[in-house]
Amino acid sequence: MEAVVFLEFASGASGVRSCLLDRIAPLSLSGDARLSFVGTERDDIRTAEVIALGFRSAQTAKAIMQRWTSDPAFPKAVEMRLLRVEPVWSIEPLAVMFP
To answer: What is the mean pLDDT of residues 69-95?
Structure first.
């Protein structure tokens, strides 16, 4: 996975989650993206939902984001962020103790 797109929206927004999942399903079936998680953030002020969508290519992620934002049917209440994933290499403690 080279990139992750976070889709954030208010939990009270009617039909937004199902609309987004309907757009994500074909991407998953084609292998272009993978649904990583759906999470809920609750605090004293608001309740928001976040959908994380992983992509093998940052270019594909950017293209999908541009296609969605230019689509008049895409929910305007959705905020999108693109994060590039950088691999982190680490050595497990046991491997250091017992080479």
So the answer is: 86
